[in-house]
Design brief:
Helix content: 10-25%
Number of strands: 9
Oligomer: single chain
Largest sheet: 3 strands, antiparallel
Radius of gyration: 32 Å
Order of helices and strands: EEEHHEEHHHEEHEE
Strand content: 15-25%
């Protein structure tokens, strides 16, 4: 059979009708279709191929793992930095300082010179609250005394538990000379 060849075949009701040999516009598979369906513009071998032909999808490559994936044109256009990832896990890994992609690093990474001020404070003062002495690392925060998160000098850092840290940030208490002072008492 050749593409475009006309042949007679029985339709689904058993009547002999004129059919044409066609090539699917989506997948390239050769198939036979009744002539009246061709006149209506149906030149696909299946509903799946027709659906794929009308989708506006882009083929992209994940910037982190290199995996090929599809994304709609509108979502691909919304990428802030023009970098696409196949999943959230790859985006998170790509954003890391150590193994990440600098185009999507947050501004506070300062060109990859990230300072782990939490680790600095724990090493200098120990992993315990300066006020109550709680020593559970998951409950501890490191507070910048002058309020400047860019100033990571050890003199500007103090280790506080979550309760004391929230009272300082909400202005119910303050830190003066490395001492915790409750306001309004």
């Amino acid at each position: 059979m050749k593409i475009g060849e006309k042949i007679y075949c029985k339709d689904r009701y058993g009547k002999r009708r004129m059919h044409t040999v066609l090539e699917c516009e989506q997948c390239g598979e050769i198939f036979i279709r009744e002539n009246y369906l061709i006149e209506n513009g149906r030149k696909f071998c299946s509903v799946k191929c027709r659906g794929l032909s009308i989708r506006n999808r882009l083929q992209l490559v994940c910037a982190y793992c290199g995996k090929h994936f599809e994304r709609s044109e509108s979502k691909a256009a919304n990428a802030k930095h023009g970098v696409s990832f196949c999943c959230r896990e790859c985006k998170d890994k790509g954003q890391r300082i150590s193994s990440g992609i600098s185009a999507i690093h947050p501004n506070h990474y300062a060109g990859g010179e990230y300072v782990d001020y939490r680790r600095l404070a724990f090493d200098a003062y120990g992993a315990k609250c300066a006020v109550c002495g709680i020593a559970n690392e998951t409950m501890l925060d490191v507070h910048h005394i002058d309020g400047d998160r860019g100033n990571n000098s050890i003199e500007n850092l103090i280790v506080l538990c979550a309760n004391h840290h929230v009272s300082v940030t909400r202005k119910a208490a303050k830190i003066e000379g490395r001492k915790y002072i409750i306001l309004g008492v």
